[in-house]
Amino acid sequence: MNDGEVAVNLRINSESRQVTADVRSTLLDLLRERLHLTGTKKGCDHGLCGACTVSVDGERVLSCLTLAASIDGADVLTIEGISSGNDLHPLQEAFIEFDGFQCGYCTPGQISSAHAMLAEHQRGDLSMVTFDGGRDDVITGCARLSNQEIRERMAGNICRCGAYANIVEAIASAAEAVTENGSA
Amino acid sequence: MPTPPESMGQPVNRVEGVDKVTGRATYTADVVVPGLVYAVLAQAEIPHGRVIEESLHSIADSIARSPGVLHVLTPLNCPALNTLPRESTFDLPLERRPPLSDLTVQYVGQHLAMVVADTLENATEAASTFAVDYEVLSAQTTAQAVLAQPAAPDEKDGQIRHGIYRPDHFVKLEEEKLQDQRGTPPHPGLAALRVDAHYTTPMNAHYPIELSATIAQWDGDRLTVHDSTRWLAGERATLAAYLGMPEDRIRILSPLVGGAFGSKSFLWMHVVLCALAARAVGRPVKVVLTRDQMFTSTGHRPRTEQDVSLVADEDGRILSTEHHTLTETSTVAHFCEPAGLSSRFLYSSPHLAVSHRTARIHAPTPCFMRGPGEAPGLFALEVAIDELAERADLDPLDLRIRNHTDTDQASGKPFSGKHLLQCYQEGAQRFGWHDRPPTPRSLQRSGIRIGWGMSTATYPGRRMPAGCRVSTSADGFVQFASATHEVGNGVRTVMTQVAADVTGLGMSRVSFVSGDSHFPAAPYSGASQTTATVGSAVFAAAAEWKHRFLAALIDDRDSPYFGADPAAVDIAALAPAAAGAYREQLSFSVRSDTDDQSSQAFQSFGAHFCEVEVDEHIGRVTVTRWVAVMDCGRVLNPKLARNQVMGGITFGLGMALLEQIPHDAATALPIGEYYLPTHADRPEFDISFVDHADYGLDPIGVRGIGEIGTCGVPAAIANAIHHATGKRLRDLPITLEDLMTVYEPSSDQS
Fold first, then answer.
1. Do A103 and B256 touch (CB under 8 A)?
2. What is the value of ipTM here, to two decimals?
3. How large is the average pLDDT for residues B316-320?
4. pLDDT > 50? residue B750
5. In this complex, how many residue pairs, one in chain A and one in chain B, have their CB atoms less than 8 Å apart?
6. Is B707 on the interface with A (CB under 8 A)?
7. CA distance readout (Å), B674 to A115, B204, B291
8. CB distance from B677 to chain A under 8 Å?
9. CA-to-CA separations, B522 to B465, B518, B693, in angstroms, rounded
10. pLDDT digits (tens, 9 = 90+) for B564-585
């Protein structure tokens, strides 16, 4: 190992990987330039646009602001790992059916973000919009994921093509499918 | 097997949808090339001056010794590039001055060096140390500053120019006159009503989420460039001109493009520098611009100042329209934001005066951005119309209907199909416009002010020549190829639909590919012309394919249709491999030229209606509801068309309320961030199409939908805010500060 490099053990999409990373390398650049997992996109490289969203240990993070060396031992889920084999995840199916994209560049981030967001909602995380609802919602974590809730919780993922309404419809539809079939 | 259902007109899902939701979709920066090294750009930090040569020598030497650095390209060692031919730079925004060709600085963000290293991290760190000394010269960074002083003489044989000029027409479109007049000023006795107002729009950024990326690779004297471009043919020609090499030795690949909106069209300087760097290091080189560099090095919408004067008789009939625009370009390229073009024909107006002046300032080169001209121009015109309606004491929709015309007054020709009155009527009904109280500040909901506004939308219908190659495989599948670009416009899907229906094969047995300069040429993906342009080529290719296939079947003694009537052949019922037997005859290229367009004017129209909520205590405006009815010819795919228009409206919403490239006036350096609409900012949409096919422009009846969604949107929002608050806001973007200031009725009559 050279100066300025560090060994990092990661589980990426359920596969163990030991990689030598430049200490300056972000998780995003490691995924894209070293591991050629190019589904995760670079849109701003400073945490504004959400295109690089992946999950680290189940929580959505901006991979452009995450140093690879800082997550040694972590479990990383990228867009490539969201479907199982050729079977698309309900979110992916719904994005196609509701036309939740145009150019498609922000889409891996939108889907990764939505995937983790549905888990956040299921465990009862609140959003700012939850406080517009009733007392029960605040206490129990709002059982129903309304479109307003989705919009608030997805506001960190920019779609310059402006497919927002379709993305929300897709997520709402997938949320129902996921709830009906148990957890994602 | 029955004949496959017509796919045109159906809400077909995107053909590249699975790739886009699984991360398999490939954009330029995703292309894996063995042996790749990385380039990072270093840029000027002053608007005007000269780099001190010694300081550049010294820093270039120091960077060259940094870990992993392979090459440092600067004006001191950059190979001489040819200057571009005049037809590229005279009326298109390609820079006259080749990059790294001298030590002067003409704008903040001008490239000064390209650093190539073995890893992205090494290149980034080395480039971050770039700093030079400058001889600082006084800069003119606004049109007003240029107006205030006499113009300096040209420099470098006209590569650098100064002062103000009045372009005759927009890009290469001679009929789109930027200086236009008709009629005589109205008789003062008739001129009962008038509006004279000044409107401004800021610098806007396209902000595609995909950063511009280039990978350049040499194989001997052949160059392959992967680039996020939406103009393969233009980029190849421009690279060939710069490098002094034949076009056939250059191949440009543009896999999928992650949004463009007007950027990614012209050969921006990083592309040719990447090619030079790859030649210098003898390895493929990748450069991905940073988000900050996207603001300075891939174009932007320039600022405008617009003076609009409308004169009407006492019934609100417009007698005179004047629209005078002052805008800006760089000192090294031509571009004029054509804000006044729509004012020439949108409403009946016997007298007209339209002018444009462009000031060359020390700022990056601007270019087209979604709705060039229409987006800022309709903001001014459509707010002025709202102001005139207020003066006339008429509903703004009634005033527009009174001034409707079915003739293009700019050319004197009839429109090929104008159904604007239907758009108004359906839109008003869907929105509930007729319940709108005329007086501002009369609608409220729990202390929040409500306003309703509207505007007219318009954008030209355009078509250019294009080619298409058809390849039939042994198993009978048919691929259609054209050097167009999938920028999110859905071209691959819609072209597959056209090919499927015209051949009669159905969507599962045809495909459409784009993004390779080796395919038959197509124009840039812009001006909302792709479906009309490439669609005409695919239509011609598919019709020719069917004609040849039927002829082959009927001539073939072994065919069940030998000697049959062509009408009796059911292509879809044949085995997929049937066409494969004739694959040589069924693999060919066509070129589709534009038909005679001289007798009609092709123009799309639409109507926007919106509702805003304004919380005056905190200065917050929320656009809650949007009804748009569009007249864009035939709609080939309502799912994709609705998405495009919705995106266009969201783009216009950003322009109205959020977007501006903020600069520090003293240093001309960009400061702060660029705000964009998010999930939380968009309204509930009701988008529909009147769907009248227009076969005058092309054989598939379309006029294009890429831009019209944006056009008129900022005015509809500004008019709704006026209705909510009584404030007439004429400068974009409309911000919190504008809405928090106390309402004063008198200020409205300014």
1. yes
2. 0.97
3. 98
4. no
5. 168
6. no
7. 27, 9, 10
8. yes
9. 7, 11, 23
10. 999 889 888 888 889 999 999 9
